[in-house]
């Protein structure tokens, strides 16, 4: 049986990311998958002290810059950070200066894409 894909979903790239923040350092793992199954994997090492959600933001922004460079038009990102997803969707309001700056940076990149969705996934299902 052939899968029925809507016109909007054709050409949709998938982005999975997972940030890590601990005493010994912070970073993120990124996986960008093309509609054909071609996969790019990246690891980020952040050389500055981060809060719990900053590695997720860094991962999202870096991956969107890569996708923009690759001229990706449609992308669906998955994150286990409720704060990041809530801020992007408008469900939450940024209260900290750093979150406001990350959200503004995200908004500035958003216009480069026809479709840009950021979905919340359970931690166990994240990259």
Automatic annotation (TrEMBL):
<dbReference type="InterPro" id="IPR012337">
    <property type="entry name" value="RNaseH-like_sf"/>
</dbReference>
<feature type="domain" description="RNase H type-1">
    <location>
        <begin position="25"/>
        <end position="126"/>
    </location>
</feature>
<dbReference type="GO" id="GO:0003676">
    <property type="term" value="F:nucleic acid binding"/>
</dbReference>
<dbReference type="GO" id="GO:0004523">
    <property type="term" value="F:RNA-DNA hybrid ribonuclease activity"/>
</dbReference>
<dbReference type="InterPro" id="IPR002156">
    <property type="entry name" value="RNaseH_domain"/>
</dbReference>
<protein>
    <submittedName>
        <fullName>RVT_3 domain-containing protein</fullName>
    </submittedName>
</protein>
<dbReference type="Pfam" id="PF13456">
    <property type="entry name" value="RVT_3"/>
</dbReference>
<dbReference type="InterPro" id="IPR036397">
    <property type="entry name" value="RNaseH_sf"/>
</dbReference>
